[in-house]
Amino acid sequence: MKKSGVKSILVSWLGYADLKGMASSLPQKMQAEIAQITKHKGDWPTGGMGPVQTCIGQMAFKKVYLLSNFPATINSQCAKHYGPQVEIIPVTLENPTDYKSIYQISLDALQAITQRESKSPLELSMLLSPGTPAMIAIWILLGKTKFPARFYQTFDGKVWETEIPFDLTLDVVPDLMKGSDALFQHLALQSPQEIPGFESIIGESYVIKMAVGRAKKAAIRNVSVLISGESGTGKEMFARAIHLASPRRDKLFEAVNCAALPTALLESQLFGHKKGAFTGADKDHIGLLKSLDGGTLFLDEIGESELVFQAKLLRALQPPAGYSATIREFFPVGAVKPVRSDVRIIAATNKNLLEAIKQGAFRDDLYYRLAALTIKLPPLRDRQADIVMMAEQFLKQINAEFQALDPGYKQKNISPSTKIFVKNHPWPGNVRQLYNVLLQAVILSDRDTIQKEDLIGALAEMPEAESDTGLLDHPLGESFSLKKVMSELEVHYLQRAMKEAGGKKTLAAKLLGMDNYQALDAKLKRLNIQY
After folding, report:
1. CA of 327: how far to CAs of 96, 345, 363, in Å?
2. Fewest CB atoms within 10 A around its CB: which of 29, 273, 279, 341?
3. 439-464: per-residue pLDDT in tens?
4. DSSP letter at 379?
5. Across the beta sheet with 373-376, what order do the strands follow?
6. Are strands 327-330 and 339-342 parallel, antiparallel or unpaired?
């Protein structure tokens, strides 16, 4: 069923079967030329129709574009044969099985067609029957990514729409991203500081390297990204890093906290508004989706947005037919004409959105539109190897900022015992809490060296068990059991190794200094350790 007001366009290659199908109605000279090209011998089938003729004869298309690698004489004859709705696009293709050439030719043609036809909404269709298998594969690749399209096939005088049962951006690419850790192993060997765009990410732990490796993969793909993780894990920092590592790095990046604004104000800030659209709208306002054209928009705490806003955001995130996945079409508040822009969306949440979908608090269609690629950031308690390094880097930043404002400021450092405390504290507020506690300790302490007591004072509230005891601080006496403590110590380090290794037993065994993963596996089973 064609949509009212939508211009339906068909694109296809012109193939041998199309030439043979129309040959019987052509002059003898033209038949001879076609026979030479197609290597046809014998009589031409009478009344035969090739794939293109079959399709356009039974389906209603406003315009048909045919890519042809045939001589100009053939192209001219085909244009006359098919009628005024058909336009032949001459191309030069030396090898009909060369994927690279076919891709570039098809991409250039589709970009030119969609730009030419952009004055009205388009419904793009692709005919898969003519051409080589390589040509068909490229149509499917482009029709499921950059140029969303419907697909048709023909056979024995019949035409039908073919359903391609996957979405490359929502199904195939995420599966690749979720695949074997080996896919990211080469990136996991690099420190974040060694990867352009991610220099601000501090850490050497396996889990943070894997998160950065995944983010780097996401950065080069022009699709939406959903970052999840507890509050304070650095989701906005990762979003900025993805932007800086992407081809959009020279364009603008802007962050919006969806939890901090009421729906009406959020709509105006994102979509813009027209003068007089509501009380106080005394002039036109260009929203972020338009002002960030070519750049990146970060939607923080998207899980807190209301369903009304979610519906409007979903509509804006659905690209117009025939356009790439980052083209947004939306209506400013009070406007009657839509506005278009090219903006990449990165969203973040500390909620379990799949659970929110079950509860009816979040739209599943919006989730799948936002979560083309997903990145989950680890909490700080799973990054023990990074905590001291982060604390030292944060303290270095704080010292530099304070000294710039006050030349007489004396730089502060962290004592060895304080580093142990920092490393063992659970930090429920994650990276943000660590930074704030260090900042307060620097401000309030009169000493040049930050002590454990300074951090405890900055933490304000801290359970005694966490501040006074640990695996190395059990009180000796009648209730003390060395065997029990050693067992707890073993469980602690086995769990920690498995977390830092991302569940990979081979790597965890190396972290623990064990000769092989079989010995580790036996311990995990014997102690019934969950990780």
Report:
1. 31, 10, 21
2. 279
3. 989 988 888 999 888 888 888 643 33
4. P
5. 253-257, 296-300, 344-349, 225-228, 373-376
6. antiparallel
What is the rounded distance in angstroms from the CA atom of residue 184 to the CA atom of residue 162? 35
DSSP 319: P
Q: How far is CA 77 from CA 47, 86, 141, 529, in A?
A: 17, 12, 30, 75
Contact 126, 10 (CB under 8 A): yes
Q: Which residue has the tokens 């004592």?
A: 415
pLDDT in tens, 324-352: 788 999 999 888 889 999 999 999 999 99
Place of tokens 């905590």: 387
> In degrees rounded to 5, what are phi and psi of residue 171?
-110, -60
* Confidence band for 472, pLDDT divided at 50, 70 and 90: low
Please report the pLDDT score of residue 349 as a whole number. Answer: 95
Tokens of 262: 């009421």
The Cα 264–Cα 255 span in angstroms is 18
Determine contact, residues 148/34, Cβ cutoff 8 Å.
no
Rounded mean pLDDT, 111-123: 80
Percent of the chain with pLDDT over 70: 89
| Helical (H) or strand (E) element with 497 | helix 482-500
The order of strands in the sheet holding 122-127 is 86-90, 63-68, 7-13, 122-127, 150-155, 158-162
Type of residue numbered 455: L
Cα–Cα distances in angstroms (integers) from residue 93 to residues 69, 147, 461, in the given order: 6, 22, 72
SS3 of residue 314 by DSSP: helix
Provide the 8-state DSSP code for 186: H
Looking at 82-91, 277-286, 305-314, 327-336, which range is the least confident one?
A: 277-286
Count of Cβ atoms closer than 10 Å to residue 182 Cβ? 8
Cβ neighbourhood burial of 275 (10 Å; 0-12, 13-18, 19+): exposed
Cα 358 to Cα 226, 350, 361, distances in angstroms = 18, 16, 8
How far is it, in rounded angstroms, from Cα 89 to Cα 15?
13
Question: DSSP code of 333?
Answer: B
Give the DSSP per-residue string, 273-287.
B-TTSSTT--S-B--
SS3 category, 312: helix
